[in-house]
Structure formats: structure tokens, C-alpha cells
Amino acid sequence: MTKGHVRLADLAKAAGVSQGTASNVFSRPEVVREEVRERVLEVARELGYNGPDMKGRLLRAGRVNAIGVAAIEPLAYFFEDPWARAVMTNIAAVCDATGTGIALVSAQNQQKLAWNINSALVDGFILLCVEGGEKLVELTRRRQLPFIALAFDDGDASIPTIGIDNTAGAAAAARHLAELGHRRFAILAIGHSDDHVGAVTPEQAIRSLKSTSRDRALGYWQALSEFGIERENVPVHGTRNDKSSVDAALETLFATPEPPTAILAMSDRIALFAMQWLAENGFAVPGDVSVVGFDGVPEAATTQPGLTTIAQPLEEIARRAVSAILDDALPCAQETLGVTLVIRGSTARPRS
What we know:
Order of helices and strands: HHHHEHHEHEHEEHEEHHEHEHEHEHEE
Number of domains: 3
CATH superfamily of the largest domain: Response regulator
CATH architecture of the largest domain: 3-Layer(aba) Sandwich
Strand content: 5-15%
Radius of gyration: 26 Å
CATH topology of the largest domain: Rossmann fold
């Protein structure tokens, strides 16, 4: 036998014990007499045997007690983006309660994506398919393990999905501001298919925005039309959901003769960047400008002033997603959960 390629049977023969005893030394050492256990471990060290192949054992058992989480983003996305971080925090809490492991799967490198999905030692996948997750869904389906997609809508009802009512949530945000008396609005958008940054017309937004962002835009326009505000009179600026693109959008908007008194941000991250820019440029929130976000991330509650937002039921999403994998509770159809308007200090009546 070659050192480093020793089988359990080889170890058992060399140590003069049964294969079952040799296996117990590594998996159930408490049932093996100490002198036998020490002899087997000493022979294992001499032969270079490092223990049974855990991957093979788990695959034979048919269960590995771990969930894979993947997104079409760099791995840093799980730690840097407030929504992804909040989702992962809630998934981790559910997994902690059930003693389940989590494997983060990198989907950024397209050349290695198939390998990463196929080699992940997991019982199933939670896919953070906010946008552009078609390839991720395709590869996961091919793996033939249970999977659940979050925030994914490509019109395929056969894809098990847990999502939210983006249109109703956005409408609630816009209606809240309109009821306060605001009539000059601007939308800070995300999710352009061509990564567009800058002003777009409503028609361009409908064509270029991906489904989640398009539904939010439609919800804003729907509610504002109830107050006689036409979509053509609501500027829409595309952003990359980062500070530099949000800053650029606000610099353009507030250089106009009649800047907005109300900002509708398609994510809490955008809203927080907007509040930072407004403070740095001498605008009071909500005295001069009211801001509403979308997602309900923890940072929305701790910023000063607190951010009014549309809160997703993140705990419920995490609970259902983990249960879908561990309890074979995949939804028969795409599930849509409701959202909640959380009013905090970032919104108020406009100045007279």
C-alpha cells in the first residue's frame, strides 16, 4: 500500500483488529478499549491514515445536515450588503436552532460555478436570486437536490420561490409620503439589466428594470397616480446600489430648480446612502427631504433619524427557506409574503 492511500481495511489488518473496531476508533472511540484504541491510532500514524472519508460516509447516509446558500454575487456580498447580511443572520439563527451547518457557495466565477454547485456537500440550496439567477437555478436543478429561490421571478411557476409583494410594498411607501403632503418625488432605482446609472424615462425603466425593481417602480407610480401625480413627473435615477452612484443621482436631482422633497429608495442601503449625502450637503432629514427605504434591515432602526421603510418578514422568509430544505417542505407554487410599512423619523410633512 502507498502512504496516503491507505484504506480502513488496510489499517485494521495492520493493527490486528476487525474493520468494525478500526472504524469505531474514529467514529465511536468511547466503545473501544483504551489500549486497543491507542494501538490503532499509532498504526494509523505510521501508515499515514487520516481517518475515514467523511464525504463518502455522509453521501452513503443520504444526509449531510448542511444547507448551501448561493448568490450571483461575490462572497463579500453576504457580509457587505445589509439585505443579504440580514437574510443570512436569520437563516443562521434557524440553522443554529436545528443544529444545521451552512455552506456559502461562490457563484461569481462563471467558469467554476458548475463545479462549486456540484461539489457542495449539502442537503439542498437556498438561492439568493435577487436578480439574474437563471444560471444558478439551472445548475441547481441539474444537481437534483431540493432548492428554494428567494426574490426570484422569471415567470416559471415550477421554480419553488419565496418572495414578497414588491408592488404593494412600494405603493405603501409612496402613499405614506403623498398623504403627508409631498408632491415632488424622485425614485432611486436598482436592478437595471444593463447596469445603467443616471436618469431614465418611465418607458425606459419598464424595459430595462429587472422584475423586482420594475414591480417596485410600478407600485410607486400606482400610488402616486391616486394623488394626481403622473409617472412622467417623477424622475427615476438608476444606481448600482452603492454610494458613488447614489451621490451622483442626488447631485443631479438637487441641482434642479425644484428638487424633490421626498425620496423613494428601492433599498434601505440606497436610502442610507441618500441620507448621508443629504446631511453632508446641508439638507435636513426629514425637515427638507423625507426618505423611505425598502427591506427593513437592522441598520434602518439604528440610524439617526430612524429610516422609514418597507420591512420584509425576514425571520419568516428564513424559517420557511430552511424548512423547505430540511423538512421537504418545498412550496407547491411560488409563495408571496406580505410586507409592512414601518414609520420612523426620516419622513414628515414637507415645509410650507
